[in-house]
């Protein structure tokens, strides 16, 4: 199954997390989401978000000025 992608470049806290959460809520458990962000604070935000939800931060990297996050959808939060 191919990962979904979300581009939140140019947005600042809290919008990248809010948009990520909204999309993850529509995804099935185990699906992967790749998020592209430019907000330097997103590094802390995404780590905290994944540590406080059932979603897993699989990896993150920096490509120039873009931060790339690989997140796996956790168990349903219904």
From TrEMBL:
Top-level taxon of origin: Bacteria
InterPro entries xref list: TusA-like, TusA-like_sf
UniProt name for this protein: tRNA 2-thiouridine synthesizing protein A
Keyword Transferase in record: yes
One of the record's GO molecular function terms: transferase activity
E.C. no: 2.8.1.-
Top enzyme class: transferase
Family: Belongs to the sulfur carrier protein TusA family.
Residues annotated as domain UPF0033: 6-30
């Amino acid at each position: 199954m191919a990962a979904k992608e979300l581009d939140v470049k140019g947005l600042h806290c809290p919008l990248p997390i809010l948009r990520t959460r909204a999309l993850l809520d529509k995804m099935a458990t185990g699906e992967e989401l790749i998020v592209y962000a430019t907000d330097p604070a997103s590094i802390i935000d995404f780590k905290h978000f994944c540590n406080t939800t059932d979603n897993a931060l699989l990896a993150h990297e920096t490509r120039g000025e873009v931060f790339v996050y690989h997140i796996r959808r956790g168990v349903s939060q219904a």
